[in-house]
Design goal:
The complex is a heterodimer.
Chain A (H helix, E strand, L loop, with lengths): L2 E4 L3 E3 L5 E8 L7 E7 L6 E7 L5 E3 L7 E6 L4 E6 L8 E9 L1 E5 L3 E5 L2
Parallel strand pairs in A: 2-11
Antiparallel strand pairs in A: 1-3, 3-8, 4-5, 4-9, 5-6, 7-8, 9-10, 9-11
Chain B lengths: L3 E4 L2 E4 L5 E7 L7 E6 L6 E5 L3 E2 L7 E6 L2 E6 L9 E6 L5 E2 L3 E5 L1
Parallel strand pairs in B: 2-11
Antiparallel strand pairs in B: 1-3, 3-8, 4-5, 4-9, 5-6, 7-8, 9-10, 9-11
Classes of the chains: A mainly beta, B mainly beta.
């Protein structure tokens, strides 16, 4: 079955960087893009950006431009999301999702806590 | 950016009754709209795409309708497992989500 498995929880200090991985299985990785979505505690869903697993093209949400980088490793069917210059309001659960326009399926989520 | 507005923020309904959730787009998104269900501590799950097509494995009690700027998710007879938060998402011009509707037991 199609599945996305994400890396484990992270605790980071303000100003640091975090890199979250998302390993895909059950489908041809390069046939679809991957979107990243985050959810702050008790809040709604915020789309962060998209990467084509075919050619690496990206599109990032404007508010994260300059701080986020999305990459893929087609040899391992893994997508990565790196967020730099972390602030306390970056504390959230970060999800990857296979992007068909709609998102299906989603990874299980990775909690990133930013705290001094 | 296309703004998605969901109403109501909270909906209280008794099991077995019908629930109707609304989603409005700030400009036309054609039929490029999806609905998701999210339970506490879980990732969102796709329910509907293309405004009205049920995703694989989604029960027939879930239905979606609408096009352009006005959309509705209807759950015909609420089961205990349906009480959750529901989000709409447009994918006509990249992606934006509504703020969610919490469906709670009355």
């Amino acid at each position: 079955q199609v599945q996305l498995v994400q890396s484990g929880a992270e605790v980071k200090k303000p100003g640091a960087s975090v890199k979250v991985s998302c390993k895909a299985s059950g489908y041809t990785f390069t046939s679809y893009g991957i979107s990243w979505v985050r959810q702050a505690p008790g809040q709604g869903l915020e789309w962060m950006g998209w990467i084509s697993a075919y050619n690496g093209n990206t599109n990032y949400a404007q508010k994260l431009q300059g701080r986020v980088t999305m990459t893929t490793d087609t040899s391992t069917s893994t997508a990565y999301m790196e967020l730099r210059s972390l602030r306390s309001d970056d504390t959230a659960v970060y999800y990857c999702a296979r992007d068909l326009g709609w998102f299906d399926p989603w990874g299980q989520g990775t909690l990133v806590t930013v705290s001094s | 950016e296309i703004v998605m507005t969901q109403s109501p923020a909270t909906l209280s309904v008794s099991p077995g009754e019908r629930a109707t959730l609304s989603c409005r787009a700030s400009q036309s998104v054609s039929s490029n709209l999806a609905w998701y269900q999210q339970k506490p501590g879980q990732a969102p799950r796709l329910l509907i795409y293309g405004a009205s097509t049920r995703a694989t494995g989604i029960p027939a009690r879930f239905s979606g309708s609408g096009s352009g700027t006005e959309f509705t998710l209807t759950i015909s007879s609420l089961q205990s497992e349906d009480f959750a938060v529901y989000y709409c998402q447009q994918y006509n011009n990249w992606y934006t989500f509504g703020q969610g509707t919490k469906l709670e037991i009355k």
